[in-house]
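We give the chain.
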Amino acid sequence: MSVILLAPQAGLAQAPVKIVNFTADWCASCHEFEPKFARALENYTTDEVELVTIDLTHLRAGPDSKQATIRTAKALLGFHKAAYLWDWYGGYTGMAVMIAADTGEPISCVDRDYSPKQISDRIQLASILANNAAPGRRRPGGADCPPPLR
């Protein structure tokens, strides 16, 4: 049996921050938020931030589609260590939650009320905290997110 060791490649490392964006085609707040969010994201590479989109467009398309959308959203959130976000915000759209990639710990939230600069500043802060603060201590007072809505 032989073992092949490969040197790590740049770009394969996990970004320290994941941004979970809750969106839907029918969401009026999303239509305000998305352009601002996209402009803010232009300042970051995929090595710095990973975007996780939870598309809830089909949540209103009927019972079968609704259940499939919920299952898919829960699975995707679970994969990214953020299953708790469905319990907090499942079904709500027009917001994004920044989490630490290593633990899924919530760091910050943004929505349509933030300018592109404010969103970018929040991403920068999340990156600093994810890279430099110990897990569980990234937001000592808790994430600046709305209280769970569900």
Remarks:
- Residues 63-79 form the longest helix (17 residues).
- The chain has one domain: 17-132.
- The chain is about 35% helix and 15% strand.
